[in-house]
Write a structure and sequence with these properties.
Helices cover 42% and strands 16% of the residues. With 237 residues, it is α/β, with parallel strands linked by helices. It has a six-stranded parallel β-sheet with strand order 3-5-6-7-8-9. It has a three-stranded parallel β-sheet with strand order 1-2-4, with helices on one face. The longest helix is centred in the first third of the chain and has 17 residues. It binds fe (ii) ion.
Length: 237
């Protein structure tokens, strides 16, 4: 079993709806390590121009996380990142370096509300690319416009240099006929660039990387399963 890189994880405590306390964070780090994860890009929710985000607190807690891993002898590399709920202010925030990219690369994790229209997603992708960044669409299986018309995923991939992420939970658990068919289609065509745990805690939304990887190997083969979990999504160019 290989080691994994998780590009979507709400492990830093006290900054969003992920880990609430330092103890929660420590438990999540241990679980991630036990699940075979050796690198995490920490991705707290940010909403540029709408909600103020406390980066000083984030940095303080991020350092505590690093210190904890070292003190426990866990070789778990942590990186800064965020999950951007796309707003009109997003590109300005990126260019002014007021929000981090994924692990300092040109890639940015971006999400939308589930009912966002395709043209809005299209415009956002275009704007992010024009600003010099590569969008990684978080849990792409959540957007109804894509699930209803899977052909639009191909259109996005054909038209833009963007990347797509699916959550581990979606890989493991059946989500009903239509969503399962959609998910099968996007993996079959290798439209997906990475899976992420989107872990928020150790109970209701835990890490499930190892189980998802096993499913991916079974359904789509080891090569693609490796590419989806080894952090290659962070490569630039
Ligand atoms: Fe998330």
């Amino acid at each position: 079993m290989p080691y994994f890189v998780d590009i979507h994880h709400h492990v830093i405590y006290g900054v969003d709806d992920g880990a609430r306390t330092e103890a929660d964070m420590q438990a999540m780090l241990k679980k991630a390590y036990d699940d075979g994860i050796r690198a995490i890009v920490t991705t707290p929710h940010v909403t540029p121009g709408v909600h103020r985000f406390d980066w000083e607190r984030f940095d303080r807690h991020f350092e505590k996380a690093q210190h904890f891993c070292a003190s426990e002898g866990m070789k778990l590399q942590l990186y800064r990142g965020c999950e951007i709920l796309y707003t009109e202010a997003t590109c300005d925030f990126l260019q002014e370096e007021r929000i981090p990219t994924l692990a300092g690369t040109e890639n940015v994790l971006v999400e939308f509300s589930p009912d966002t229209a395709f043209k809005v997603i299209n415009r956002a992708v275009d704007a992010i690319l024009c600003s010099g960044y590569t969008p990684v669409i978080a849990h792409m299986e959540r957007y109804m416009c894509l699930v209803r018309k899977p052909g639009l995923v191909k259109k996005l991939k054909d038209n833009y240099r963007l990347k797509l992420q699916v959550n581990c939970g979606t890989v493991i658990n059946s989500k009903g006929f239509f969503l399962d068919r959609f998910v099968r289609n996007v993996f079959e065509n290798e439209y997906v660039d990475a899976i992420g745990t989107d872990a928020h805690n150790v109970s209701s939304r835990p890490v499930q990387m190892k189980a998802a990887y096993a499913q991916l190997v079974k359904k789509w083969g080891e090569d693609y399963a490796n590419r989806l979990t080894n952090g290659s999504v962070l490569e630039e160019g």
